[in-house]
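Study this fold:
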Amino acid sequence: MIPGLSPARRGLIVAAVGSSLTVSWASSYYIPAVLAVPMAEDLGLSPVWVFGAFSMAMVVSAMVGPWAGARIDGFGGRGVLMLSNLVFAAGLGLLAVAPSPLVLFAGWAVIGLGMGIGLYEAGFATLTGIYGKDARGPITGITLIAGFASTVGWPLSGLMLATWGWREACIGWALIHLVVALPLNAWLPKGTTTVTAEATPVEDGPPPSRLALWLLAFVFAATWFNSTAMAAHLPGLLQAAGASTAVALAAGALIGPAQVAARVLEFGLLRRFHPLASARLAAAAHPVAAVALMGFGAPAAYAFTLLHGAGNGILTIAKGTLPLALFGPAGYGRRIGWLNAPARILQAAAPLIFGAALTAWGLHAIWLTAGVGVLATIALLVLRRA
């Protein structure tokens, strides 16, 4: 932990990281929903190809995540986050000038590099470098801010698309990275825990067991799979349960507020408990919601989205706080990079897998994600409090 940081400075650091991550999420993860179709039409492609390029970007992000984490462990996160803004801007610039599908894929590959070094994992590692074992509160704080990335990103992308076009929208996001996010990250202190996994102090405890690491990696992969599957197919799932299109869209709109409300709860009441306790409750929320949807059909649509959204909101925080609480700050960045790599790869496949299940089984496809959620809950119950 960096000494001498006033409470006001600490709040500004959280605000700066949260705001820069909001830009990063909004300009990468959330732009296909708005720009994929016009991108595809302009290049004479099916939108499936654009989403395929986006999935490739997530695989690329999984490959570079451990390197970024190790870099943050050794030198602090300021430089890595600043680099991510430059990489995002370069990738968005490639998309903006893409004359062919090949350049389009190249642009998404570069954006994947940015995602690997500039999304939550990098933000969590940066704050752990600054705050050490006391980073739980700041980690929760940045998820409260960046939780509004879709709320900001989708309307802004839509506005730029309607006003200028999809290529100009990509240029607009690139400029926002350079003019807004890059200066915010440049202002951060050069924080690093200055210890490595190989030089862990005695008081930090023994090295983590392989079983604990594998269990946690599975939990992250399982919960990211469910989160991405629901993000891609929630309206169709609710309609399969008998909900009208209007009800499905209205219920889906509750996921964002539910996530933020749950994160506020984590920041307040649940911070008194070990992160393992709140993660167990959060992982169980989706299976409980699935049972309600199967049992009551369309009338349970709102309850389903509220439970799923609340659980997902807390699990996003758990991806940062659980490795810190269980294994300590030493080697945190590299460790969180490896722990989240399988999640990124499975996340890339989640829309395709759950979409096929929804087409084949209808509402009964929910048992797939419910089963995954149950397994994640069991894995968390097996983990022992450090």
Residues 194-205 have pLDDT under 50 and may be disordered. Residues 234 and 252 are 7 Å apart (CA to CA).
